[in-house]
Amino acid sequence: MHHTVSVLVENKFGVLARISTLFAARGFNIDSLNVSETEDPAISRMTIVVKGDYSILEQVTKQLNKLVDVIKVNDFNDIEYIERGLALIKINIKKSTRNEVIQLIEIFKSRIIDVSRDSIIVEITGDGDKIRAFIKMV
């Protein structure tokens, strides 16, 4: 089972390294990681997805709360939220298959970001199943 954790941290050099080291040292695998500055430039939000049972999530939360630069840890396990993925995919295409690929892009409600003579870059958003299905089709 996947668990999503939001961590507010001080926006300082080395914080990401300390948190990833915490996960590695305890044998936790990070499935997904996103870090960005909040409206307060002194604070960053880390969104971390971890695979495992609830006891693993509880242990991760306790360990994160022990780190000096961690301000707050939120577990999204008990609240309703929307999860959405984004992928940028470079597709090598030939002139003969270009129209077919463009039709797939339209069917999946994706966007063409860049076009060159022999490739296109597509942006697709949605749940993981939708993104995987698109990749399989192209």
From TrEMBL:
InterPro entries tied to this protein: Acetalactate_synth_ssu, Acetolactate_synth/TF_NikR_C, Acetolactate_synth_ssu_C, ACT-like_dom_sf, ACT_dom, AHAS_ACT, AHAS_small-like_ACT
Gene Ontology molecular function terms on file: acetolactate synthase activity; acetolactate synthase regulator activity
Biological process annotations from GO: isoleucine biosynthetic process; L-valine biosynthetic process
Pfam families: ACT_AHAS_ss (PF22629), ALS_ss_C (PF10369)
Pathways per UniProt: Amino-acid biosynthesis; L-valine biosynthesis; L-valine from pyruvate: step 1/4; Amino-acid biosynthesis; L-isoleucine biosynthesis; L-isoleucine from 2-oxobutanoate: step 1/4
Catalytic activity: 2 pyruvate + H(+) = (2S)-2-acetolactate + CO2
Enzyme Commission number(s) from the entry: 2.2.1.6
Keywords: Amino-acid biosynthesis, Branched-chain amino acid biosynthesis, Transferase
GO cellular component assignments: cytosol
ACT domain location: 4-78
Functional summary from the UniProt entry: Catalyzes the conversion of 2 pyruvate molecules into acetolactate in the first common step of the biosynthetic pathway of the branched-amino acids such as leucine, isoleucine, and valine.
NCBIfam families, per database record: acolac_sm, PRK11895.1
Binding partners and assembly: Dimer of large and small chains.
Recorded family membership: Belongs to the acetolactate synthase small subunit family.
Protein name according to UniProt: Acetolactate synthase small subunit
